[in-house]
Structure prediction request, 93 residues.
Amino acid sequence: MAVKCYFGYNQNKMKGLYMEYEKFKKILKENDLTLKKFSELSGVKYGTCRHWGKNGRPVSDWVESWLNLYLEKKELEKYRESIQTLMSGIKAS
Prediction:
């Protein structure tokens, strides 16, 4: 049985520790990610994501590093595809 935990937060004490909601939305938009898609990829319930930024609720502290890793992975996949294309061209020669 899963235990539900809620950790209260004080906006003044937590400032700087959490990603700002506007920054989160900007990163999603710049990378063609919807809130729904982020929810699916990260495994966070969509309702939880929708509540970030409301009534001072911060974006979870792990989100920024998760986004950095996700975007880095996407970039590396592009390089891998380019290398595979290059290698198949060399083998064909």
In short: Residues 1-14 have pLDDT under 50 and may be disordered. The two ends are 59 Å apart (CA to CA).
